[in-house]
Write a structure and sequence with these properties.
seven-stranded mixed sheet; Metallo-beta-lactamase, Chain A; single chain; alpha/beta
C-alpha cells in the first residue's frame, strides 16, 4: 500500500541579491523522508541555515537555477562546512551547463586549494541536459530555459518528490516556459522582483497578474522581492498573492 509522506518546503532565504528587507539570499529547502534538497544556495545560505536551525548535513542535493552569486555563491561555504564537519554522506550539486567549471572557479577564488583538497564524502556535479535529470532515489528534476542575464544559464526548475511537484521560477522575465513549469504543481515559488516596473530579465507583479490564469498550480508563493515590492506588501496581499518570508514552512 502506498504511504503518503509529508514533504516540507522551507524558505530559508527569500531575498534578492541585495538583502532587501534584511532577507537572506535565495535558498529553498525541500525536506522529504530520505533527506533534503536545496533549490538554490545564495551566498548567505549557510548563515540562513544556522539561523533557522536547519542541519546542512541532511542535504543530499543542491539544485541551482542559474549561476549568479545570490543563487549559487553559498556552495563553497556548504562544501567546506561539510568537509570540516567530517561529512561522509555524498553531496550532489546539480546545475545548468557550465556549473562544474563555475563552482570550481568560485571555490578556488574564495578558498584557494579547496576544490582539490581531500574530502571524506563524494562530491558530484551534474549538469542539466535536455530531459529530466534523476538526482537521487525518488527525486527527479525537469528544467526549462528561461529569460535572465546572458551568461548566467538561467533555468526554471520542477522537482518531483514523493508524489509532489514543486516548481520554482528562478530569475526570469515573463516567458511561456513558466506555464509548463507551474502546470499542476502543488507549489510554485515564483519571483516577483518589482511591483509594476518592467525591466529586462526580471518579473514584476503586474506582468505576473496578467498571466495568473495560465498558471495552473495549486499554490503560488512570491519570492525574491526587491525593496519596491516589500514596500507594497499590503497591495500585493490585497491583490490575492501570498508572499514568502525567511522561515516560511509549507507542508505538502
Amino acid at each position: 500500500m502506498y504511504v503518503t509522506r509529508m514533504v516540507t518546503v522551507r524558505f530559508l532565504g527569500s531575498g534578492d541579491a541585495f538583502g532587501s528587507g534584511g532577507r537572506f539570499n535565495t535558498c529553498i529547502a525541500v525536506v522529504h523522508s530520505g533527506g533534503a534538497l536545496l533549490l538554490d544556495c545564495g551566498a548567505s545560505s549557510l548563515v540562513a541555515m544556522r539561523r533557522a536551525g536547519f542541519d546542512p548535513s541532511t542535504i543530499d542535493v543542491i539544485a541551482l537555477s542559474h549561476l549568479h552569486g545570490d543563487h549559487f555563491g553559498g556552495v563553497p561555504f556548504v562544501v567546506l562546512d561539510a568537509q570540516f564537519a567530517n561529512r561522509t554522506r555524498p553531496l550532489t550539486i546539480a546545475g545548468p551547463p557550465g556549473t562544474g567549471a563555475r563552482v570550481r572557479e568560485l571555490m578556488e577564488a574564495m578558498f584557494p586549494g579547496s576544490w582539490a583538497s581531500r574530502k571524506r564524502f563524494a562530491l558530484d556535479i551534474v549538469e542539466y541536459g535536455a530531459t529530466a535529470t534523476a538526482l537521487d532515489d525518488g527525486l527527479a528534476l525537469v528544467t526549462h530555459p528561461v529569460v535572465h542575464t546572458p551568461g548566467s544559464s538561467p533555468h526554471a526548475l520542477r522537482l518531483a518528490v514523493e508524489g509532489r511537484n514543486i516548481a520554482y521560477s528562478g530569475d526570469t522575465e515573463w516567458t511561456d516556459a513558466l506555464v509548463a513549469v507551474a502546470d499542476g504543481a502543488d507549489l510554485f515559488a515564483c519571483e516577483a522582483y518589482y511591483f509594476d516596473k518592467r525591466v529586462p530579465y526580471h518579473l514584476d507583479l503586474q506582468s505576473l497578474s496578467a498571466h495568473r490564469e495560465q498558471l495552473h498550480c495549486k499554490r503560488l508563493v512570491l519570492t525574491h522581492m526587491s525593496r519596491d515590492m516589500l514596500s507594497r506588501v499590503n497591495e500585493v496581499r490585497a491583490a490575492g498573492f501570498e508572499l514568502a518570508d525567511d522561515g516560511l514552512a509549507i507542508h505538502l
